[in-house]
Write a structure and sequence with these properties.
By secondary structure, the chain is an alpha/beta fold. The protein contains 15 helices and 17 strands. The two termini are about 20 Å apart.
Length: about 475
């Protein structure tokens, strides 16, 4: 079945500063946590490719923005790297600021709307050494960084986001120990999650102030982007499975949704955390800060659902209550390269949940994409990668988005993750997401894959 996008539904590209820019020591950029990890233990990265190169967006941003335009895209999102914009004293780094000004000017020249995110897992190392997200001093430093960014670029950027996936660092760095500094401590993880929430709210406060004081352009908006993985459990769940589901949804989704829609954290989740010794470090005055976190809209990154069941063990290795274990759905279709389930209907279920529970908030699909290993296998004689699997992936998700819109979900647009192949954290360039490939052996040259022409046609048909 062919699909047709609704008129006015925007289409664009999602990316991030730390995964694309490269130039990690150019233009006064400070070290960030990825550079530090790469320096300390390069074998943790696929094929020993560390954070240094991105996909060379720093040099190629003009070409890349033209490429987005060539596909008919109207917008793209990237992030400012905190470690590029400010120096260690929190002052503007003029070369860093100049780079982002040039990106803004180029996007404007191409008639492409630039969505700017402030943080994509990329803590500057000097702040990580002062405690990172475990420290309130760093939360304050982030608010000052946000203030500086709003004031510097407020007349050039209309759509702002405080964070990309604030659930990921608490999980990957502090709870599961998968990312540097490899901590496995539920209590510290919860504190980090809480501090990120405060940081979000303080940045929103700075945004509103900047708005009142005339630093922003008319109609400027602030949002939060998260991977609100729709949660599911077994078909015939026990009360314990349902409890696992409540906390999975509570910590990963409702925590952020309540924060940005209602200005507070979900009471039932806090009650459970309190009861099992996992309450974060809440201080007097925090409640007032949390009440400032309401946003204008949301970004929803969707790759896979989250399936959980009651945990086998009640306590983890540190004696903290476990809330759930993963549940492997026997009928799941997997992306074997990434190990993620492909479940397009999840995107519709989220849309329906938003319609029912947070009807005032509009949203867009801020990331969705399929990473595949060794795409050379799919190269035709003419030299083009025939990524029909990716076309299928995008199509099946768009079908469910369109259905959700038809049934009342306020979904405004779609950004494909990694329109141009980029560096994927410790997977480096293992899985390629792009509609456009990057030739690592040949000066990072860009080349369309089959899906690029498909995307172009899809967008053209929307407008015809
Ligand atoms: C999201 C992140 C992106 C991107 C994407 C794909 O969670 O916001 O930064 O990396 O996932 O995941 P990965 O790169 O790990 O394959």
């Amino acid at each position: 079945m062919e699909i047709r996008l609704p008129k006015g539904f925007f289409m664009g590209a999602a990316m991030s500063g730390p995964q694309t820019e490269g130039a990690y020591r150019t233009g006064g950029k400070l070290e960030n946590i990825w550079d530090t990890w790469s320096d300390r233990s390069i074998s943790d990265f696929h094929n020993k490719v560390g954070s240094y190169v991105g996909n060379n967006f720093y040099e190629k941003y003009e070409e890349d923005i033209r490429l987005f335009k060539s596909l008919g895209m109207d917008s793209f999102r990237t992030s400012i790297q905190w470690s590029r914009l400010l120096d260690e004293n929190g002052h503007l780094n003029p070369e860093g600021a100049d780079f982002y000004h040039r990106v803004c000017t180029c996007a404007k020249g191409q008639g492409i709307e630039l969505f700017m995110n402030l943080y994509h897992f990329d803590m500057p190392t000097y702040l990580f050494r002062r405690g990172g997200w475990e420290s309130r001093e760093v939360v304050e430093a982030y608010a000052s960084y946000a203030k500086a960014a709003f004031r510097e670029f407020g007349k050039e950027i209309k759509y702002w986001f405080t964070f990309n996936e604030p659930i990921v660092e608490p999980d990957q760095r502090y709870r599961n120990g998968l990312w540097y500094p490899f901590i496995r401590d539920a209590k510290r993880g919860m504190n980090v999650q809480y501090h990120l929430s405060l940081a979000h709210c303080l940045a929103v406060r700075e945004f509103r102030k900047a708005q009142e004081e005339g630093y922003l352009m008319p109609g400027a908006q602030i949002g939060l982007i998260n991977c609100f993985a729709p949660p599911y459990t077994k078909e015939n769940p026990s009360p314990e499975d349902l409890e696992a589901l409540r906390m999975e949804d509570g910590v990963n989704n409702r925590w952020w949704l309540d924060l940005v829609a209602k200005g507070g954290l979900p009471g039932d989740v806090l009650k459970t955390l309190e009861a099992c010794g996992l309450m974060p470090d809440v201080r007097p005055g925090d409640e007032a800060v949390l009440s400032m976190g309401k946003v204008d809209w949301l970004g929803f990154n969707y790759y896979h659902p989250s399936r959980v069941q009651a945990p086998k063990e009640t306590y983890d290795e540190n004696g903290y209550r476990k809330f759930s274990d993963p549940y492997v759905w026997p009928e799941a279709t997997m992306n074997p390269y990434r190990g993620w389930e492909i479940y397009p209907k999840g995107i519709y279920d989220f849309g329906m949940k938003m319609k029912q529970e947070y009807p005032e908030l509009k949203f867009f699909i801020s990331e969705n994409g399929m990473g595949v290993e060794q795409e050379n296998r799919f190269r035709s004689q003419s030299g083009e990668i025939q990524d029909d699997y990716r076309i299928e992936f995008i199509k099946s998700h768009l079908e469910w988005i369109i259905k959700a819109i038809q049934e009342g979900a306020r979904c405004m647009g779609y950004h494909y993750w990694g329109v141009i192949d980029n560096w994927s954290w410790n997977n480096a360039f293992k899985n390629r997401y792009g509609l456009i490939e990057v030739d690592l052996a040949g000066d990072y040259g860009r080349k369309y894959k089959k899906s690029a022409a498909w995307m172009k046609k899809l967008i053209q048909e929307r407008d015809s």
